[in-house]
Amino acid sequence: MYADETQVVNIKTIHRKVIESVFVDNENKPMTVHNIIDFIQSKLELVFTEEEITEIVNDTKKNEFVVHLDTKLRESFIRLSDRRFSSLKDKEQKFGIETYIKEYVDNVYEGDLSHEHLEDIIFKFIYELLNKNISAFKKLTSSKCRAEEISINNNLFTIEERNAINDFLNWNKPEKNKSIFSLVSYSVEYSMLSNNIGNGNILLQSLRNKEFYLDNNIIYRAIGINGEDRKNRILTFLRKCKESGQSFVVSKYTINEFKETIKHHINQLQRVPFGKINPHIFRKYAVNPSIYEFYHKWRRERSTYGFDLFSGHIQGLYQSFLTSFNVQEDYRIPFNEKDEKVLASIEAYKQEIKSYKGKGNDESHNFDAQNTYLLEQKRGANNISISDTKYYFVSTDQKLRNWDFGRNDCQPLALLPSQWMTVLLKYFSRTDDDFKSFVSFLRLKQEEPVISEDKLQVILAGISEITEDFEKQSAVLERMVEVKFDGILDGKSIDEIRENAVTFTKAIYDQELEQLKSNYSTEISSLKDTHEKSALEKQLVFKKTLLSEVNDSIETIEKTRPPLDKIAITKFSNHKWILSVGFIAYFLIIFILIYKVGWDTMEPITYFLSALGIIGGYLYFAITGKSFNPSEYFIHKEQELKDKVYKDFSFDSDRLASLLERKKELENELSELGKQTEK
Predict the structure, then answer these.
(1) I want to staple 30 with a disulfide (CB 3.0 to 4.6 A). Which of 79, 379, 455, 647 is the partner?
(2) Could you tell me the pTM of the whole model?
């Protein structure tokens, strides 16, 4: 039914293929029209009418069915022509997934699972894949169908089973990839059939001229932050979309999310000084490639580096991506962002997404909610069928997609790349590379990360303070994993975690020395001196590098201070002038009143005003415990205005103080290391 027919979009052709599959399944035994109807209903839960089957069987243009009238039973029996049956059986053998599963099990797989077990789990995976895709495409082709859960649950398989399934998917066999695609693309035809789409060409035409708003995770993958494999897969998808008539947009909210997340990750990198770190460690212990691994790969190949250069590098990749795929940045918002009803709707979406996902930060959920609301407003009432729906939100976030699919009967707003890739490869040109890329989208998540990327970065920063040897860094981290990071992640702050990592690494080095001491006591003295000298020299170089980076950071922050101090001084001068003018104005008014009304009238008033000043001073003393001192007041006011200016312009005084303190510590440490080196 699903074999090698690329442009099949006519509903009658699909009907014919279903009927033909009945005879392939029963070895071409003759059947009556009613037998065929019952067979299809029992196998596929689809209802065909006598007229539909008769029309297809009697199509003389195709001439693929043979009808025999049994005069005794007064029934017409139908079967496929021998030529057609033989052709379909050949296709069944050619495209049958069983052939490739058997070949993989017999000749490729080297794991511990038994042949029977391996075959069972691959068939189970394909069954889940096929049925989930049918649910997804039925949702696309019919607004009345609800698809509550359309992604394969990783928990259906053990880690060992997931690894075996992914190895099967990664197996470099173009025919196998095409066979898997043919199975999955069957979902499209089944959905068209079960939803009674009268003309499949309408569906084909409606696939063009869609506007795809890209999620932040698509941008991360496209520019390589999430690894080369994911980059290649997403670029293949985007190229195929572009060839097929789709255009790409990033909304104002996605642009903000991209900028904020990059800024956040760079700030995380800046928080703890570090030396050279082995980027491959992240792949092993954090599983999924991240910006931390991306940074260390970038730094490893460069003689000059810095966080400003790294930020500029990412911005350059982003701009290149926009140009390559003609991605439009959309800052136009078709609603009032400050309207209370709009804010309430976005907040409601945010809470739903937060509840559905169960993890993640509020800012991320808010960006998803804003994009959801934006695309709903752009769609308006044009959101019932795939033909009249123009806007979609392409994301790799399966939980966001599942939340969106289950919340209403309209066209789904969020689409996974693999889902649209199935449709494009079904109806547009494709190559073995396209099939390979498609199959790579199907891989299951293999394992949970041992530790989060941000904590791993902090720990490696501590290890790199002791050693920049990549092999030794890996060995130390393996020891940490063995003890499940006991005593290392107990720190309440990032600095404490880093210090715990430093202490742990030093302890391992001391332990190695003790081991060497017991094994090679005669040589240990010279070895210890050499080792200590080497360690001191490495620490000395490392501390100097850290001090240089800290000084650069201080210099960067200090450059922003003078103009802010100038603003604060101006504000303070204005404040003093206002007080001076007020003071002078007070006595001037008193003098004028004395001149106008006479001293006899003003004398009691001036005494009263003087008494108020004395009483006010006493009350101030009673409340604060301090006497009013103009000098102290001006000092306090000057500092208050300066702090306010710093806050208004986001000048980080705490970070500067922390860096200055760190600089002092490093200078003291360098001084001590210098003394030890001279000994």
Answers:
(1) 79
(2) 0.55
Hunting for tokens 């980027």 — which residue is that? 279
- Tell me how far apart the alpha carbons of residues 291 and 576 are, in angstroms, rounded to a whole number: 51
Tell me which amino acid residue 152 is.
Answer: I
Q: How far is CA 76 from CA 54, 254, 463, 594, in A?
A: 11, 63, 82, 128
Residue 56 to residue 60: CA distance in whole angstroms:
9
CA distance 188 to 141: 9
Which residue type sits at 643? Answer: D
pLDDT beyond 90 at 601: no
Q: Give strand pairing partners of 247.
A: 211
Alpha-carbon gap, residue 146 to 130, rounded angstroms? 17
Both structure tokens of 284: 């092993």
Angle formed at CA 597 by CA 595 and CA 598, multiple of 5 degrees: 65
At residue 213, the 3 state secondary structure works out as: strand
- How far from the centroid of its chain's Cα atoms is residue 91's Cα? 41
196-210 as b/e: b if 16+ CB within 10 A: ebeebeebbeebeeb
pLDDT digits (tens, 9 = 90+) for 41-53: 777 666 677 777 8
For tokens 């670029």, what's the residue? Answer: 235
d(CA 152, CA 130): 10
Type and span of the H or E element at 12: helix 11-25
